[in-house]
Design goal:
Elements lengths: L3 E2 L11 H6 E2 L1 H11 L3 H5 L5 H16 L8 H4 L20 H17 L11 H10 L12 H7 L5 E4 L13 E2 L12 E7 L5 H9 L8 E5 L4 H4 L1 H4 L3 E5 L13 E6 L4 E6 L14 E4 L9 H5 L9 H10 L7 H8 L9 E5 L2 E4 L12 H12 L7 E5 L14 H9 L13 E4 L3 H5 L15 H5 L8 E2 L17 E5 L5 E8 L5 H4 L1 E3 L4 E4 L3 E6 L1 H4 L5 E2 L29
Parallel strand pairs: 1-2, 3-4, 5-6, 6-7, 13-14, 14-15
Antiparallel strand pairs: 3-10, 5-8, 8-9, 9-10, 11-20, 12-19, 13-16, 16-17, 17-20, 17-21, 18-19
Helix pairs in contact: 2-4, 7-9, 15-16
Length: 580
């Protein structure tokens, strides 16, 4: 539907969602697009009034959730796969090339087969569908040989998985593959209650995942970022659900963490850190990463709890607790108490948190370095990792923020410096940083064609201010994991040897390549400014295999192929503008 432009123009004072859904506001939509693209400094430099900032935030959330499609996008957006809604679409509407049309037809046929175990969340029928699911629930097959618990045990000591790809059947039963619904399988424990922390949530789809294993009526706490009427009203419709929206204190931050916690009837606890939004499209034909903790039983005595026992040598429990404390939410207190009482001594990864704030930096006092964002990662690497002079830092992401006028502004001059830290750090040069992000041709060749780029929100305008970045870019190739055509929503970082046979660390996280996520030095390097909530887990050889490095392909398998494939002369990054 073609929206009329608001008659008040730039003087519009409305903040109501329905107004922005009924009338177009080109200037506010432009600012909102820049917010979603992470162009924080650029937007802040505009000198916007607080009212306009609030309006832009509302519009940015509507655009991110897919509720609002800017006027210039509407014609093509109606013909491509909507990236945030699990609703049935007609392939004849696609205006792409033949390959994309065929991919969409296949997708629709797959969705029709899956209809009995899915619940839409955008059409007002969520709870009716959910009730029907309760009455007649098919049990999803999780593999011919291994159930989820067997997969978790077999994946030790890493416990790291990729998500199954709906249109790549060969991925379904891979030992290192999980579906989101597998996290609630009874083989992992008899679920007592759970918590989901995320950015975007489709409640109907989420409940359908619980429904597959008949645990949909267990108490559920959902902490989310993107505004949703459905979520805000969920508690009044399903008494066992408690939903809380978190808005970071900075106008351009987001609640981007993707983490799950499950409490079981035997008193044990399990933590899951992953990379997907809780929406249908993120778990169908995109590549996601999942880390599943081993079961954490309760400590044997209160004395052990009081003395701080139950933590691992990685400090996972300590760092998880201090992260949750920053929310200042009463609803989180019971979960924090469960964590305090849990024995997490066998967890072998480090927790890497980001929480909004301005944290003082004290040069020369290593123990007083902010334990957040990239400086916390740097501190851990200095303590527990080794490096070689020719190591390469590989950053793999699904979104890119405003990086500054040159590589030294932040990407190489700050973020990569932290990722190069070790007990024997060698200074990084420009060529030792490589960024994996799909080029336009990668997306066109994906399962859903150009629509597959809906989860990759980098803009042409943002790139025009940092064209130097193209020199750092490498294509998405994952033939070894059967996921080249499944666009990556996973975010991962690694430091690998020059011959690509060893890695000194691997990091799975919700954090993309942006200052808002990782933090940036400000006030003449006196503080670290972080604007978003993020969570990740760091794999270090010292704690997992007892060595100095991972053997790539044997001890750990990266989500992409090595050596990387560099952009060619005619390649450019995928821009979300291509869908307009």
């Amino acid at each position: 539907m073609d929206m009329k432009e608001c008659t008040y123009g730039s003087k519009c004072y409305r903040r109501n969602k329905q107004h922005f859904l009924g009338f177009s506001h080109p200037y506010i939509e432009n600012v909102a697009s820049r917010i979603n693209n992470g162009e924080i400094e650029a937007v802040m430099s505009l000198g916007l009034t607080p009212d306009l900032v609030e309006q832009a935030q509302v519009v940015a959330e509507l655009m991110e959730s897919g509720e609002l499609i800017p006027k210039e996008q509407q014609m093509l957006e109606t013909s491509v796969y909507n990236r945030t809604r699990g609703v049935k679409r007609n392939a004849s509407e696609m205006t792409q090339k033949k390959a994309s049309q065929e991919a969409e037809v296949n997708h629709l046929e797959h969705k029709e087969k899956q209809l009995k175990i899915k619940a839409p969340s955008a059409d007002g029928k969520t709870f009716a569908t959910f009730k029907a699911l309760e009455e007649n629930q098919p049990q999803e097959s999780v593999g011919k040989e291994l159930n989820p618990q067997q997969k978790v045990e077999a994946s030790a000591p890493l416990h790291y998985f990729l998500s199954a790809v709906a249109n790549e059947p060969e991925t379904w039963n891979q030992p290192l593959t999980l579906r989101f619904a597998d996290l609630f399988h009874p083989s992992l424990g008899l679920l007592q209650q759970s918590m989901q922390m995320n950015f975007m949530v489709e409640l109907g789809w989420l409940l359908a995942q619980y429904c597959q294993h008949k645990v949909q009526r267990k108490p559920l706490l959902v902490i989310y970022g993107v505004e949703s009427k459905e979520l805000s009203e969920a508690g009044s419709r399903v008494p066992t659900i408690n939903t809380i929206r978190v808005k970071p204190k900075y106008p351009f931050g987001s609640h981007h963490t993707k983490m799950s916690m499950m409490s079981y009837e035997d008193g044990s606890l399990r933590i899951v850190v992953h990379t997907g939004n809780l929406i249908e499209s993120d778990w169908e034909d995109r590549t996601q990463g999942i880390w599943v903790s081993p079961s954490c039983p309760p400590l044997l005595s209160e004395a052990a709890e009081n003395t701080g026992d139950g933590d691992s040598v990685t400090g996972f429990k300590r760092d998880l607790l201090r992260y949750l404390e920053t929310y200042s939410l009463v609803a989180l207190q019971p979960w924090m108490e469960k964590i305090r009482k849990a024995d997490m001594s066998h967890i072998n990864v480090c927790f890497i948190p980001s929480s909004p704030g301005s944290y003082p930096i004290h040069p020369g006092a290593n123990e007083r370095v902010p334990r957040w964002g990239h400086l916390h990662l740097s501190w851990l690497l200095q303590q527990h990792s080794s490096s070689e002079p020719d190591d390469t830092v590989i950053m793999q992401c699904s979104s890119i923020g405003s990086l500054g006028p040159s590589p030294s502004s932040w990407l190489v001059g700050e973020l990569a410096v932290s990722m190069a830290a070790s007990s024997s750090t060698a200074k990084l040069g420009q060529q030792t940083v490589q960024v994996v992000y799909p080029c336009a041709q990668d997306v066109k060749a994906s399962i859903h064609g150009m629509a597959g780029g809906g989860c990759l929100p980098y803009t042409r305008q943002g790139h025009s201010k940092q064209t130097w970045f193209t020199g750092f870019l490498y294509k998405w190739r994952s033939e070894s994991r059967l996921r080249t055509r499944a666009m990556p929503h996973i975010k991962s970082y690694a430091r690998v040897s020059s011959d690509m046979t060893r890695a000194s660390f691997f990091l799975l996280t919700s954090a993309n390549v942006s200052k808002a996520a990782w933090g940036m030095r400000s006030n003449k390097c006196a503080t670290l400014m972080i604007q978003s909530f993020e969570a990740g887990v760091l794999f270090l050889p010292k704690f997992i295999f007892g060595g100095r490095s991972f053997e790539l392909g044997r001890q750990i398998i990266l989500p992409y192929d090595l050596p990387l494939t560099k952009y060619g002369d005619g390649d450019e990054p995928w821009f979300i503008d291509n869908m307009r």
